[in-house]
Fold Helix-turn-helix domain-containing protein.
Amino acid sequence: MPGKVKYLGGVGDRGLGMELRHYREKAGMSCARVGEVLGWSANTISRLERGLRPETTAEEVSAILAAVGVTGPDRDRIMRMAKGYREQGWWEGNKTHLTDQARTYLKFEARATRIIDVEPLLVPGLLQTADYCRALMAAFGVEVREIEGRVARRLGRQAIVTRPDPPELVFVVSELMLRQPVGGAGVMARQVHRIVEDAERPHVAVRVVPAAVAAHPGLHGAFTMLQFADEPAVVFVEGRMSGMFPENPDEIAAYTLSAERLIDLTLGQQESLQLLHAIAEDLERAR
C-alpha cells in the first residue's frame, strides 16, 4: 500500500504562516512561548507558520494574533487572509492598492532563492525603466492619476535586484518584444540599455528567444516561478485584471517543464548580451 503523501503546504497557508511568524518575531516571542500562552505545542505553532497545518481555523488564527498583540487594521487584514484564501482560490486583484494576496506574493518574492520570470510580450517588471512602465500603463488604459503610484511601486520592487545576498534571477524574453518601440524608439533604447546593465550582474541572467524561433512554450503566456531552498516552488500567472497562484502539483510541474524547455531554446547568456547590444544600437539609430 502506498504511503501517505507528505503535505508540503499550499500557497495560501504558507502566506498566512509568514504573516503570523512576522508578528510573533516582532513581539519578541518564541514558538514555545506562544504555545505556552495558548496551551499548544511549539511544534503546532511552527508547522502553522510553515504552512504545514491546513486544518488551522480562523478562530485559532485569532487566538494567535491575540497572544502576540496584533490588533486593529493588521488583525483585520490577517483575519481576511485566514478566512478568504480558500473561497478566493488565491486570486489577486490588480487594483491601485495592494491586496492581501499581493502583499504575500511580495513576501514570497523577497524570500525566494531563485526567480524565473518568463515574459514573451513585455519587459519583466523587475527590469523596467520608469518611462517604459509609464508607456505601458498609458497603453493599458490606467487612469492618469494612478500611473505615478503604480510606477513607484513597481520601481520599489526592483530593490531585490541590487540588495545584498540577492536571489538568482533568470529573465526569459523574446527578441520580437525587445524590438517593439514601446513609448518610442528613445524610450525603448534606454530600456534595452537598462536590461544590459542588469544582465551584467553576476546573479542575473537575461536569456533571449531569437526571432528565428517562431514556436515555443512561451506562447502560452507569461508566468513567474519562485523557488526556495527548502520548500516547494510557487508559480504566479498574471492576467489582465487578476493574478493566480496554481496549487495543483501537476500544474506546477508543467510550468517547471515549460521554463526548462524555453530556456533551452534561448541564446546563451553571452549571445543574449550581444543581441541586446545590437538591438539597442538599432533603436538608437531609429530615434
Remarks:
- The chain is about 55% helix and 10% strand.
